[in-house]
Design goal:
Blueprint (H helix, E strand, L loop, with lengths): L1 H29 L1 E13 L8 E9 L5 E5 L13 E7 L2 E7 L2 H28 L1
Antiparallel strand pairs: 1-2, 1-4, 2-3, 4-5
């Protein structure tokens, strides 16, 4: 039963990684780039005793001329100064897909999820084969 759980968790994490990779590909291929500005940092209390976290809030103008806000999913203040520029990329007509356009941030969403997903799934399959 535990092996099945590991396999399902591994496949789910790999699915998330593939989803992120496909979205990143679509953004790079068809995305609209905009200049954003780090408006503020929002703090939230962490879950599970992890302490408070800070998320950058970036304001940008989309292709329709509307002012939009994007809250960065990654925590911390690395590379983004308050009031400083933040490149934004999003799919046409879908501002909800907006991401901060920094390559290393994309890689930090994709690579660990694929690696951990493969690790979990391969451990489960390895144990099934050994039986």
């Amino acid at each position: 039963m535990g092996l099945l759980v590991f396999l399902v968790i591994g496949l789910a994490i790999m699915g998330y990684g593939v989803h992120e990779a496909v979205l990143d590909y679509r953004l790079r291929r068809h995305g609209i780039r905009a200049r954003g500005l780090v408006a503020r940092y929002e703090s939230s209390s962490g879950t599970g005793g992890s302490g408070p976290t800070a998320h950058a809030v970036v304001e940008y103008v989309d292709d329709q001329g509307c002012m939009r806000e994007l809250q960065d999913k990654r925590t911390g203040r690395s590379g983004l100064r308050m009031g400083g520029p933040a490149p934004v990329i999003y799919l046409p007509g879908a501002p909800g897909t907006a991401r901060i356009d920094i390559a290393r941030r994309s890689l930090w969403r994709i690579v660990p999820s694929l690696a951990f997903g493969c690790l979990f799934a391969s451990l489960a399959l390895w144990e099934l084969v050994r039986r």
